[in-house]
Amino acid sequence: MALTVVDHPLARSLLTSLRDRSTPPPLFRLIAKRLALVLCIEATRSIPTTPTEVETPLERTGGTRLGPLVAVPILRAGLGMLEAVTELFPEVTVGYLGLERDHATFEPSLYYSKLPPLEGRSALLLDPMLATGGSAAAACEALKAAHPRHITLLSVVAAPEGIAHIERSHPEVDIVTASVDEGLNENAYIVPGLGDFGDRLFGT
């Protein structure tokens, strides 16, 4: 497993605004999208490319194109990262996974799955908060059943516990995040974190 913490002043500034409890939902959505763009650029650094040729206005020249991508947000919070991916890669195919966490046991359960063909494609799994890692691990399991070429997990913030869970259960999955936070509190929320990403995203 490769863990990448995006160490860029823009990423740090955007994350600070997301952490701020006074940031209203419309601004939160905009900032989340911008930070997801930064994470997505980093996450696609190792995506396979194929050589190609194009005609410029002056002559023919060589270039490269990215291999096929699939973006899979975990509902509902992952939707806040999806638009960034589709803007960067208009040809991306999109799937959806719905997972909910039992607040007593913290164990995830899958309630919705709609995945496009994944075989041979690189998958970007969008999960803004990697807390216990249970939901992300269950999502990775669902994706792996469809035989993608590779899975990269994009998270806005991650807890050490969640990173360790993914490393144990899916060591071939890479993680790209803007921050590794201190850890989890007694309710399995990331601290300092930024609260409930979905609630803040949708104003609920």
Characterise the protein shown here.
This protein is an alpha/beta fold and 204 residues long. It has a single domain, classed as 3-Layer(aba) Sandwich (Rossmann fold). The chain has six helices and 13 strands. The strands form three sheets. Strands 1, 4, 5, 6, 7, 8, 9, 10 and 11 form a nine-stranded mixed sheet that branches. A two-stranded antiparallel ribbon has the order 2-3. The chain has a two-stranded antiparallel sheet with strand order 12-13. It is globular. The termini are far apart.
Which SSEs are present, and which pair or pack?
Layout: E1 3-5, H1 9-19, H2 25-43, E2 49-55, E3 60-66, E4 69-75, H3 79-88, E5 93-94, E6 96-101, E7 108-114, E8 122-126, E9 129-130, H4 134-144, E10 150-158, H5 160-169, E11 174-180, E12 183-184, E13 190-191, H6 197-202
Parallel strand pairs: 1-11, 4-5, 4-6, 4-8, 8-10, 9-10, 10-11
Antiparallel strand pairs: 2-3, 6-7, 12-13
Helix pairs in contact: 1-2, 2-3
- Do you know the CATH architecture? 3-Layer(aba) Sandwich
- The radius of gyration over CA amounts to 17 Å
Oligomer: single chain
Shape, principal axes of CA atoms: globular
Please provide the ordered H/E string of secondary-structure elements.
EHHEEEHEEEEEHEHEEEH
How many helical stretches? 6
End-to-end separation in angstroms reads 35 Å
Largest sheet: 9 strands, mixed
Helix content: 25-40%
User: What structural category characterises the helix and strand content?
Assistant: alpha/beta
Low-confidence stretches: none
Mean pLDDT: 93
CATH class: Alpha Beta
How many individual domains? 1
Query: What's the total number of strands?
Result: 13
Kindly estimate the percentage of residues that lie in beta strands according to DSSP: 25-35%
- The CATH topology name reads Rossmann fold
